[in-house]
Amino acid sequence: MRDDLAKAVRPFLTEKRYGHTLRCRDMALRLADRWGCDREKAEEAALLHDITKKADNAGQLQLCDKYGIINRYSESEFPWLIHADTAAEVARDLFGAPRDVCMAIKYHTLGREDMSLLEKIIYLSDAIEEGRDYPGVGEIRKTAFENLDMAVLMSLEGTIKDVEEQGRAPHEQSRMAADFLRKQLEKENRMDNINMEPKELLAEIVKIADGRKAKDMVAVEVTEQTTLADYFLIMTGTSSTHIRALSDEIEFQLKDRFGVYAHHIEGINSNWILMDYSTVVVNIFMSDAREMYALERMWGDSRPVDLSKFITAE
Ligand SMILES: [Fe+2]
Ligand SMILES: [Fe+2]
């Protein structure tokens, strides 16, 4: 532990902020151990992250002047956000912190696109150290040890929502950070789906739908026709409530039992629900819509899949 550094930062911080800083260090070390990040850097960044927080607006402006920091914040944002920029410079100048540590300090309040592991750890440690007590913090804390990107996204989204509820516009940089992570997580989910054999996935969907009394299920193999999917599956429901129940059940069970998420789901409020599981595309129709779109005819000579062993005859 860098007790020398912990002592050195003490005069820069109020008592309350010092407590927060030490708890932030504890969390950063735990997260560094969990995710294989350099412990010393995590500790250094955590101890230095709020080092200029004590300065008032005039003091912050002086630091901006001294280090050539361009103020990119609006008047209302400035008091909350500028300390991250000035702390990064002071960490470098007075404490000799290396560049990656300074970057983690600089982005600890807003995040940014494509954050490094260290940046994510410091961003989160600040938000979820054990002294933090806001609605939802427990869930983010738990997630931080299971899925780091997910936890950062949850935290960013929480902040964005809070700011919006106060009638202010969230900072562009946080929005972009959240969008970036959302896309990345979506891509990972898609990879997960591919990890489940397409044929196995198809069989599971057919069994789930059969349990919910889907009618006239037909599947074709389309590997030769398209790279978009391996299988198309069609089924019919008897009412809008029924097709909705079918899609809900498929979505829930695949998520719950296999951790498989749909890439996207369309038409929830129409007579045709399309669920894209990448390798398997599921079409759930009301009977009139099924006739109207006549998808099966478009498939022409695609190879039908024998589903009889998954379907219980009525
Ligand atoms: Fe801060
Ligand atoms: Fe902080």
Written account of the structure:
With 314 residues, the protein is of the alpha+beta class. It folds into 2 domains: 3-192, Hypothetical protein af1432, CATH 1.10.3210.10; 196-310, 2-Layer Sandwich (Beta Polymerase, domain 2), CATH 3.30.460.10. The chain is built from 14 helices and 6 strands. The chain has helices at residues 3-9, 15-35, 39-48, 57-67, 78-95, 99-106, 117-128, 137-144, 148-165, 172-195, 198-211, 240-258, 287-293, 295-299, and strands at residues 215-221, 231-237, 264-266, 272-277, 280-286, 303-304. Strands 3-4-5-2-1-6 form a 6-stranded mixed β-sheet. A hairpin with a 2-residue loop joins strand 4 (272-277) and strand 5 (280-286). Helix 2 (15-35) packs antiparallel against helix 3 (39-48). The protein is elongated, with a radius of gyration of 26 Å. It starts with a helix and ends in a 10-residue tail after the last strand. 34% of the residues are buried. The model has no long low-confidence stretch (mean pLDDT 92). The protein binds fe (ii) ion (FE2) (2 copies). One fe (ii) ion is lined by residues 20, 24, 49-50, 126. The site of one fe (ii) ion has 5 residues, from helix 2.
In summary, what is this structure?
This protein is of the alpha+beta class and 314 residues long. Helix content is 58%, strand content 10%.
